[in-house]
Every structure is written in C-alpha cells, then in structure tokens.
Specification:
Its main location: cytoplasm. Belongs to the gluconeogenesis factor family. Keywords: Cytoplasm. It is found in: Cytoplasm. One of its GO terms (biological process) is regulation of cell shape. By secondary structure, the protein is α/β, with parallel strands linked by helices. It has three domains: 1-41 and 182-331, Rossmann fold (3-Layer(aba) Sandwich); 43-134, no CATH class; 141-174, no CATH class. It contains 13 helices and twelve strands. A seven-stranded parallel sheet has the order 3-2-1-7-8-9-10, with helices on both faces. Strands 5-4-6 form a three-stranded antiparallel sheet. A two-stranded antiparallel ribbon has the order 11-12. Helix 8 runs parallel beside helix 10 (216-224). The longest helix is centred in the C-terminal third of the chain and has 18 residues, at 313-330. The protein is globular, with a radius of gyration of 19 Å.
Length: 331
C-alpha cells in the first residue's frame, strides 16, 4: 500500500457510528491507506447492544461490530466474516435478535478483560484492514432537550437514551452525555493525533456524530492533530432526531455543541443541495468551523441508475482524496 504523500494519507481515522460509519470505512478502505482507525460511539441502548450493556455492563458492541464488518477483506474469506459478524439470530428464545458478532466481542471481552483487546482479536480473526476503537471504555448515555412534545412549542423536555432520542417525534435541540465529561479511550485519542486524515460523519447526527465532540479529550485531540479534518454531511435529514434539518442546520448544531471545533473542509452531495442561495448559506456556516465547502456527487445508485440514500464508497473515496491533496498542497 502507498505511503503518505502530498496526495495520499498514510493513516486515516474515521469518527462516527452505525451505518454512516460503515459507508465511510468502506470508502477509506478503497483509498488504500496503510492504516485505518475507526473511532466509534458507545451510547447505543437498543436491541442486542442494549441487552448486553444492561445485563453484562459492557460497552454496547453493535456499532463496533458494524465497523469491524466494514473493514473485512474484499475477498471470499472477508465476505464470509462480514456475514458471520452481521448474522442475527431469529426465533423467540434467549438468542433472538442478538448479532453473532456482538456475542463474539462480549465473549472475548470476558476472556481478555478489556473490550479493546477483544476488538483487536476479532479484527485479527476476520482479517480486518484496520482497528476499531471505542471512543470511551465505559458505556455512555445520551440525553436530549426536545421541543414540540407539548402544546407549548417553547417547552423543553428531557429525553434519555439513544433509541428514544432517535425516535422522538419532537425536535431535538441539544444533547449531552451521561457522564457529562467522560474519559476518552487513550488509543482513540492517539489514533486522532497520529492520523494524516480525520473524517467526521456521516451518520445519525445527534446519536452517532455529535457524541464524539462531547468528549473533551477528543475535542482536544482534534485541536492538536496535524491531520486534515473533513466533515462529511448526511445526504438527507433523518426522521426523528433531525427531521426537517437543512444541510446548513446540520453544521450549525455541530458548532453549537463544540464552539472551538475546527475542521478544514466540508463535503456536501451536489445532488442534495442544488440552489445557489442554499450553497452560499452552507459556505458561510462552514466558515464558523474554519472550513471550506465542496459540492460533489457522492450518492450511491441502484442497479437502475436511481440514487439511493447512502454514500457511494468509491465516489466518497475520490472526494476525500481530492480534498486531502488540495489541502496538503496549500499547507
């Protein structure tokens, strides 16, 4: 694999969670860096992950498992491991709804004593092309201030739990973590400091992206790193937590949650935002993060040439590498 040059990063560290991080990791894997690090949120409290954290006290493994699956090798063996990690048991018994990868991470955590050693072992067994690092080594809870749940739209209510926040029919105004200033996983911090390129987003904005910048050590690492920092915006607003959000609003609430956060660039899908006036608003808002903006085709298509609601790994890789080269050339 190529070493770091002015147009190609040696190490890429991606922050996020869920399906958004999965697509980002597929993209950066295409970029063929020597090292890939996935820094993953640990606030999930639903489904298999929720049952595991409540019954065993471990960090929720679901988003970690998805990141491992995204990094499996692009061959028959890798496809087998991806299928195994993502396999979910059916039926109505004790195993119903659990993902096999979640149980494997839990078992290895019991054996090795730490989730990081367990994740590294799964990555080794699955032939993953990078490391998966929980942002914190303790489970986190998400609490949101939500409006629109009462007749008086000014009234704010507290909604606690990632699942509840994601599904709320109200408008999420702000989120916080419990505990409020959690200690970051030192290896996640080091992965940010050692990176040539750091990506943030796409993903569930309040439950997968913003939680990273609520961890003080992560914000400090993002401030100190020499890496190029690129924010990738979502293709669409999500029902529930970002219902009705424009692209500009996504950037605005990110800045609200971390006033001192600075990034170098924001990538926006060109087909999602087409009006010149809206693009101008986005560019002005991005300046509050210290960032430039580019509008590029990064949306995946189905077999019939119709656009889907996910990022295309190849297109996103090309966009990231183009902007990385431009920014490093200016430095």
């Amino acid at each position: 694999m190529p070493a770091c040059t002015a147009d190609h990063p040696h190490t890429i560290t991606s922050l996020g969670g869920g399906h958004g991080l999965f697509q980002t990791l597929r993209a950066v894997r295409n970029c063929a860096p020597e090292k890939i690090n996935a820094v993953v949120t640990v606030a999930d409290d639903g489904g298999s992950s929720g049952r595991i954290r409540h019954e065993l006290g471990q960090i929720p493994p679901g988003d970690l498992r998805m990141a491992l699956a995204a990094l499996t090798a692009d061959d028959d063996e890798g496809m087998l491991w991806e299928g195994l990690l993502q396999h979910r048991f059916g039926g109505h018994g004790a195993l119903a709804g659990h993902a096999l990868g979640n149980l494997l991470i839990v078992a290895l955590t019991d054996i090795f004593g730490t989730s990081q050693l367990a994740l590294d072992k799964v990555a080794e067994l699955a032939g993953s092309t990078g490391r998966v690092l929980p942002v914190c080594v303790e489970p986190l809870d998400l609490e949101a201030e939500v409006s629109g749940l009462d007749q008086d739209p000014r009234l704010m209510r507290q909604v606690r739990g990632q699942v509840a926040v994601a599904a709320t029919p109200g408008q999420v105004r702000r989120v916080r973590l419990i505990p409020e200033r959690p200690e970051a996983n030192p290896e996640a911090v080091q992965a940010i400091l050692d990176a040539d390129l750091v990506t943030l987003g796409p993903g569930s904005w309040f439950s997968s992206v913003i939680p990273h910048i609520l961890v003080p050590d992560v914000v400090d690492a993002l401030d100190r790193t020499d890496a190029v920092k690129i924010l990738v915006l979502n293709l669409t607003a999500e029902p529930g937590e970002t219902n009705g959000f424009s692209a500009e609003r996504h950037i605005h609430v990110l800045r609200q949650h971390a006033n001192n956060l600075k990034v170098d660039h924001v990538i926006v899908d060109s087909g999602t935002v087409t009006l010149t006036s809206e693009r101008d608003h986005i560019a002005r808002t991005a300046k509050t993060l210290g960032a430039d903006v580019s509008f590029q085709d990064v949306r995946a298509e189905d077999g019939r040439g119709r656009f889907t609601s996910v990022h295309d790994p190849s297109k996103l890789c090309d966009a990231l590498m183009k902007r990385y080269a431009e920014i490093t050339a200016r430095r």
